[in-house]
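One record is kept unedited as follows:
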Amino acid sequence: DRIVTTVIEHHSNFITWLRVAKRHGTQVEVVRPSVEGVFDLADFEKAVTDGTRLIAVTHVSNVLGCIVPVKEICEIAHDHGALMLVDGAQGVPHIKTDVRDSKVDFLAFSGHKMLGPTGSGGLYIAETELTSTEPLCIGGGTIADVSIDDYVLTVPPMRFEAGTPAIAQVIGLGEACKYLERVGMRNVEAWDLKLANRLINGLSEIEGVEVYGPMDPKQRVGLATFNIRGMNPHDVALTLDTEYGVAVRSGHHCALPLMKELFKLNEGNARASTYLYNTVEEIDTLISAVEEIARG
């Protein structure tokens, strides 16, 4: 059996399959993009064979911000009888996501990246896979019947929801979804594109600053990772926080294979992430701060 994934994945969608390989001898095939994070579909055609059971890819890289063509990759998967799983943690908050159109079999997303509480999230499972997919945890409300030597699982989705749910978090996630629906995901996308364009162009024009990912804002969402020549990214993040009041993340962003394979970055980089609540003025503040730091 084979699982196909990519080098740009968050660890959540990478080490999971490495563990499967260790436990069951499954082969893991890793597809690599260009240095900007752009994939050639021909590479997936080569990687996917009739022995492939699953393709697991992110919709949007949490490091490069690049948008991955999941619909086209899903077609390749299904042509070979494989299932398609999408990590939507970075995609669902920023892009209108339609599982009926893409025809993916599984899509997971996280609540805290889309205005919801930490510890919340969701997993979409295609109707065709609902009864054949084994729950990770069983017990509590997941069963229809239990005898002295057997059990019968109940119908979906309850069969996947063992024990007492995180009630407050789920309610909070629901309200976040309702809010985003009222705003409209197309409006979120448009604002995201505007901020991404300003952010990428502004950082790219600063001498000594390297920006990672696609330079075309239409190929990415509103985040940017960057380094300032001669500076540790952790020092950059600390300076932005303490001297300019700007919060960014620094490090490998839970994507060590990407950092090692594509960029050879031992310390990673700094990441500025935007969302619908951010303003043009805040983007300009960040750009000005990075420019001052880069000048020394």
Remarks:
- The chain has two domains: 2-135, 185-295.
